[in-house]
Amino acid sequence: MNLIDTKSQLTEKKKHVGKVADVENAVLMNIQLRAGEEVAEHDANKEVFIIVRKGKVRFFVEGEPVDVTPDNILHMVPLERHSLHAIEDSDILVIQVKPST
User: Fold this and answer.
1) Are 41 and 82 in contact, with CB atoms under 8 Å apart?
2) What pLDDT, in 10s, does the model give residues 56-70?
3) What is residue 34's DSSP assignment?
């Protein structure tokens, strides 16, 4: 068992993006953004699951906007281009799963 701490970082800095776990077939990241902050367009060569623990984030996936909140989970396939904009102060878990070979 491993208990992973993802305490709020926004009292110490504006934006926080950090890896919290890296296992054989997945990477878990924590992103914390204040309202109005953004992450520029990029892609990943993995399956990506976005879980918003707090707040509301607008993702643009291949140019299409989608709002992600604690009430839903966003799934993206490898190489889908995406960016994000925090509508509210937000705490996000990003799970990147390596495709099976």
Assistant:
1) yes
2) 999 999 999 999 999
3) -
